[in-house]
Write a structure and sequence with these properties.
Blueprint (H helix, E strand, L loop, with lengths): L2 H20 L5 E6 L4 E6 L4 E6 L9 H31 L17
Antiparallel strand pairs: 1-2, 2-3
Helix pairs in contact: 1-2
Main location: cytoplasm
Keywords: Cytoplasm, DNA-binding
Pfam families: YbaB_DNA_bd
Length: about 110
Amino acid sequence: MNMMDMFGKMKEVQSRMKDAQETLRTVTDTGESGAGMVRVTVNGLKNVLSVEIDVDLMKPDDREMLQDLIVAATNIAMQNVEVKAREHLRKATEGLLPNIPGLNLDGLMS
């Protein structure tokens, strides 16, 4: 592969990465805690889209436990969507660059 081809590929990679990053809002995942009593859905941009709480947890005495369950469900959803977002970006740039040992494009996602 000559240098001009490589630069052309890099521009294509940048363009594809930009497009893929813009579509990360459509990549979603839901984390659950408390045996599904708390559900948090996030997108690939790491925005919380919704929080669902079982009505049985809506008691003043359970406030601290509910807060812990929301945090746990949010963290699970964030971890899961991170994996999905990486896969989404990998697919968007698949076949554009040769397999170069040590080349890590993970920083392009942030």
